[in-house]
TrEMBL record, chains A, B:
<dbReference type="GO" id="GO:0016887">
    <property type="term" value="F:ATP hydrolysis activity"/>
</dbReference>
<keyword id="KW-0813">Transport</keyword>
<keyword id="KW-0547">Nucleotide-binding</keyword>
<dbReference type="InterPro" id="IPR017871">
    <property type="entry name" value="ABC_transporter-like_CS"/>
</dbReference>
<dbReference type="Pfam" id="PF00005">
    <property type="entry name" value="ABC_tran"/>
</dbReference>
<dbReference type="InterPro" id="IPR003439">
    <property type="entry name" value="ABC_transporter-like_ATP-bd"/>
</dbReference>
<dbReference type="InterPro" id="IPR050093">
    <property type="entry name" value="ABC_SmlMolc_Importer"/>
</dbReference>
<protein>
    <submittedName>
        <fullName>ABC transporter related</fullName>
    </submittedName>
</protein>
<feature type="domain" description="ABC transporter">
    <location>
        <begin position="2"/>
        <end position="238"/>
    </location>
</feature>
Automatic annotation (TrEMBL), chains D, E:
<dbReference type="InterPro" id="IPR011867">
    <property type="entry name" value="ModB_ABC"/>
</dbReference>
<keyword id="KW-1133">Transmembrane helix</keyword>
<keyword id="KW-0813">Transport</keyword>
<feature type="transmembrane region" description="Helical">
    <location>
        <begin position="83"/>
        <end position="103"/>
    </location>
</feature>
<dbReference type="Pfam" id="PF00528">
    <property type="entry name" value="BPD_transp_1"/>
</dbReference>
<feature type="transmembrane region" description="Helical">
    <location>
        <begin position="44"/>
        <end position="63"/>
    </location>
</feature>
<feature type="domain" description="ABC transmembrane type-1">
    <location>
        <begin position="6"/>
        <end position="208"/>
    </location>
</feature>
<keyword id="KW-0997">Cell inner membrane</keyword>
<keyword id="KW-0812">Transmembrane</keyword>
Amino acid sequence: MANNPDEFRCQISQQTPIPLQLDFSCQGGEILAIVGPSGGGKTSLLRMLAGLSQPQEGEISLGEEVWFDSEKHLCLSPQQRHIGYVPQHFGLFPRLTALENVLAGLDHLPKSQRREHGLTWLQRVGLGDYGHRLPRQLSGGQKQRVALARALSREPKVLLLDEPFSALDVQTRDGLYQHLIQLIDELAIPIILVTHDIQEAFLLADKMLLLHQGKMLQSGAPAEIWAKPVNELVARQMGHKNILPVECIGLTQSDAEFSLAGQTLRLPSATGIELGTQFGCIFNQASLRLMPLEVNQLGDTAEHWLWVRVIQVRVIAGAVRVELMLEQSECMLELILEPGLNLEFGLPGSRLLNIQPNQRRQLAVDPWRLILIPS
Amino acid sequence: MANNPDEFRCQISQQTPIPLQLDFSCQGGEILAIVGPSGGGKTSLLRMLAGLSQPQEGEISLGEEVWFDSEKHLCLSPQQRHIGYVPQHFGLFPRLTALENVLAGLDHLPKSQRREHGLTWLQRVGLGDYGHRLPRQLSGGQKQRVALARALSREPKVLLLDEPFSALDVQTRDGLYQHLIQLIDELAIPIILVTHDIQEAFLLADKMLLLHQGKMLQSGAPAEIWAKPVNELVARQMGHKNILPVECIGLTQSDAEFSLAGQTLRLPSATGIELGTQFGCIFNQASLRLMPLEVNQLGDTAEHWLWVRVIQVRVIAGAVRVELMLEQSECMLELILEPGLNLEFGLPGSRLLNIQPNQRRQLAVDPWRLILIPS
Amino acid sequence: NDKGPLIAAAANVKLVLDKIIADYHNDTGANVRVSYGSSGNFVAQIQQGAPYELILSADEFYVNKLAALGLIQGQGRIYAIGRLALVAPHHSPMSLDADLHGLKQLLATGGLTHFAIANPKHAPYGERAVEVLTASGNWPQIKHKLILGENVSQALQFALSGSTQGGIVALSLAQHAEFKEHGRYIALPETWHQPLKQRMALIKHASIQAKDFYEYLLLPSTQQTFTEFGFAAAVTGDN
Amino acid sequence: MDWQAFWLSIKLSSMTVVILIPLAMFAAKFFAYHDFKAKPWLEALVMVPLVLPPTVVGYYLLVGLGSQSLVGQWLATYLGTSLVFNFSGLVLASVLINIPFALQPIQRAFEAIPMDVRDAALCCGMSPWARLYKIELPMVWPGVLTAIVLCFSHVLGEFGVVLMLGGNIAGETKTLSIAIYDSVQAFDLAAAGSMSLFLLVFAVSVLALTSHLSRRMVAANGQ
Amino acid sequence: MDWQAFWLSIKLSSMTVVILIPLAMFAAKFFAYHDFKAKPWLEALVMVPLVLPPTVVGYYLLVGLGSQSLVGQWLATYLGTSLVFNFSGLVLASVLINIPFALQPIQRAFEAIPMDVRDAALCCGMSPWARLYKIELPMVWPGVLTAIVLCFSHVLGEFGVVLMLGGNIAGETKTLSIAIYDSVQAFDLAAAGSMSLFLLVFAVSVLALTSHLSRRMVAANGQ
Ligand SMILES: Nc1ncnc2c1ncn2[C@@H]1O[C@H](COP(=O)(O)OP(=O)(O)OP(=O)(O)O)[C@@H](O)[C@H]1O
Ligand SMILES: Nc1ncnc2c1ncn2[C@@H]1O[C@H](COP(=O)(O)OP(=O)(O)OP(=O)(O)O)[C@@H](O)[C@H]1O
Ligand code: MOO
Ligand SMILES: [Mg+2]
Ligand SMILES: [Mg+2]
């Protein structure tokens, strides 16, 4: 194996206690985000990477250093792997203060430097004044930050983060993102980040891996996965909302006609589309535009537009969230109306647009922006 | 006190062990979201509402029923309050199975109905097949859902939720939102929801309360708080990013001139603006539009536009995140470019727009959309 | 009550008494129950209303104490006279003689490290053992080598454990079959010490059956049994 | 083999455990969750039965409960009963001297229940009894098991207090451990040896079985 | 008051605790974290010293360690020493018979350390010693304290084994508890009473102080 000097490689498979089948790598200086539904096996995977449990088969290595090899019956202990690990439930040492918790990971530093280094990291996570507190005297988010400081401060060879920001507010979170990015600039180590927050993954991760029931459903750059999810589950995990079933009912050289709950849509044709095939169609925000109340503006031939009924309108951060139902069906669509995007450019707020529950509206669809996925 | 039949009122104050000063109410059928920075006192507050600790002074009541009254030395026990509580760290009973955990809260039901009711709720949170598992055999998100099922299933008089969705993926979360909304329709009880997710608060909450160091900084409808945050801390907690310091340097009847890092902005005048006053100015997404590369398009008089330099470009879910720096300053601005919003309507992706790091660009500002906050 | 009256008896008469009780049952068909223990404990227990009807003490002291407390009928009777024996485990370099010359010699050569007796503070046999050691002139040299048993039975266990070179215990125990496997013994003359008068007494509320057994113990045939087991006969006339 | 003594020992051990453990659980829970000035002193006082030689403890119990004592006289007058030289006295004594073995491990187990679980239990609306039975007992079970094992074994082996307070009456107060002691004293080493061996094999089997079953029980629902 | 006996008791108790507790910690940790077929049996075997009457245990120890025994002969030949009728023998015996009191509570405490804390400790790169000292010891401390308190008290009060193996030699093997026993047997109730009282007051004070200090210590850094 002629690996990159600090490429982290993992190729494991097992059937019990839970099935797992994975093969991925992460370069030094890269962040790999692992996402997937609750119970998918993310924590189980991280514990294996940390050396806290052993897969049945496979190999885990960092550069030239083999951490685990089922064939050679080789398995380095967590100590030997020198990792930084933030467990999902923090795993703080209950009888040590916050500072002592951080210092507990710094045994590799000369004694004289430990304290200062630990304090620096406590300050970075915003807990400079809480060094003397015991875990039970800290709030949930404060605990999580101590665990984070403990893992980041020890200059690990690989960083394993299990939903490390889940208990934190936006503001604190943003500050910590910066420290994480700074750390990766300094150390250029591989970072494996388990997260449920897609925004977070987009912001931080270079690569992303979708884990479901122990299987890798998809991996690649976050934007790629977002733009080309392999199936509906991936799409939903990536935050796509409006996934409706469509069926190809007509095919020309350039166009394909789809039926959607009784209405018809004309989309650009593409390879793989055959007459009668069923797809999931993602109507993402950028592809939809709610038309003003004056009906029939788009003409009566339904080609790039749909008839919908307004179900609910709710103002959310700087925008309006509208729930629509396709006419003559149960299909729901969610639309976040930001001024200028799905509406004509103007002032925000549903009042000004006069969107009211039960209205019948036309919804323009930009066919180029729709995403088709196998159903 | 002639209260609403199921109005939940809380008016408490204390200095130790941590300072808390709150006064709020929540109607039956309403969701009150409590947000605020980590360590702000949210969990401490919820424990008081549950009867697990006592504030030094104040009164807590539900309709006519007084739960706590420091003057009358009255304090109902948690049992007497009949609440549903999801603690931040779940507090599952480690020796009981998932189903038994749920059943533990159903002592008020006739014995024959308990099991069925418990199973129904386990199914609702997506754990129908996990009833026989012990907590230590569940993943983080599965544990959280058991805790949720335990609290929701017991038809409580008030529901106290401490970040009940923090360990869950988008998809699972969305499903649970529906169940929560359904529950509130059935029971019409007050629900207090602590959360760090502003989107969640917007989606679910009727009212919102911002807690910082034990004090209520602001309360009201989420959209109101978003649109008129009383200070920078609130603004940041609401997810506002681009908050820059401006100073009023000129004042006419209709307009006010502000200096921002050496550049000048002309905004509509308003009450409370005086010459020399300093403000924080929120440049939210809807107020900014990045102009195409051809410079000087807006003319040389800087009235409603700023000179910026592109620092970083990153593709995120269906959009592009651009980091900009105001010329001749350290002020950073973050811009989420969605097609048609901050850009001229067109295809997404930074490549197409040709946004590159280090470019000098013009940024158009819509003065009507800016938010000024006291600094 | 066919189980018979309850008797408290000093541990050092266990061997002989078990035999006598068997004989008694054969002779009369009657039963008695017996509880072995330390005489001192019995006094404390009888004071607190223990259901004993007869006490066979290891000496006179405790019976006299009970008499002073008015808990027994009269003064009781001496039922046996205890005798002492010098014992040594088989491997011991000590030669046994009734004059304790062997002991003296061993002490002189420093070959004696431990010597077992019962605790003289509360065990009569221990008290008499000290008298013997003093009278034979061995006391100053031996007093730091003493291992004290809780009672004379434990002293014998010490002596047999192999970790002592010998000890002074009750002849009745030293004669025991079990002992012969482990060591040798020689009876010590009764003149070396005050007589070990073992006194018994009927408790105040004692039943007819208890009194019957009390009488049985004083029969010549029974007294003969006592001598077979290493006691000197007690019933010679004086109370 | 003195079967009578053996069964008496088993009866005494079992009754002691059955009486002591529930009481200890309440006391342990109280000690675990309440704090007051005198607590360290009370906790230390509970250790007293361990600090004195058993025979001496037995002696003081005898004097304190015997027919000459106030307690003894009251018992005799009003209940027509007595606590010395009979089985109920032994049970009382065994319960008293085993308090430290029962209390300490259970108290530690209660103290170790995490705060959030206690909170959740309080908020579940169960009656205190249901809470104790359903939630707390399964959690403190390892501590309770330790207490049971220590008490059971200790009663089997205890003879000082039993001898003093009970008086070695066959069928009533003569336990197997007294029988073994007697045999050793009477140089019946063969009998002592066989009874000791039997007691050991019995006790070790019972304890191993208990620990095995309890492990399986706990494993069946978890740990 | 027999001061010599008192100091001997203190010395014996302290040495027993000092020797036994560290050993028990290793054994307890091993038992807590490993599972194997023979484990219930081993755990039960450890209880053996409790099941037999102390005097009988003492007798078997005396025979097993005495100068005629293999062990005794080996000790005498190669080390020129002996374990009967002297202080080191008492220490050995005390350590042996207190194993159940030391092992059980500490084992439970180790078992109660949550999985995620153990995981985190493993991932922190500390040496096993540092881990034991910094992380585990503070967490199992309540269990260790229970073990110390039980062992310390039990050694103070134990006299059966001590008497049998030690032989009641003043200044060498005559502990206070034997002295008290002797006084009671000799009907010197005044001496017995005053010594008992002194021992009780002393023990209760020491235990209360220990529990108080340890509470403060733990409170200073937490619980
Ligand atoms: N037992 C305690 N002793 C002293 N201070 C405590 C204790 N428990 C919590 N605190 C402090 O009280 C403050 C409020 O804690 P609380 O848990 O209520 O915060 P929170 O708003 O729930 O935070 P988070 O969002 O991180 O969960 C924190 O600063 C915390 O450090
Ligand atoms: N000790 C165990 N015994 C049996 N099954 C287990 C055990 N621990 C976890 N599991 C199961 O393994 C699966 C994967 O769990 P894991 O904790 O890895 O999920 P996860 O992806 O981290 O989920 P989450 O996002 O909810 O934390 C889950 O279905 C869980 O129920
Ligand atoms: O009372 Mo004894 O049996 O002389 O030691
Ligand atoms: Mg997980
Ligand atoms: Mg909290």
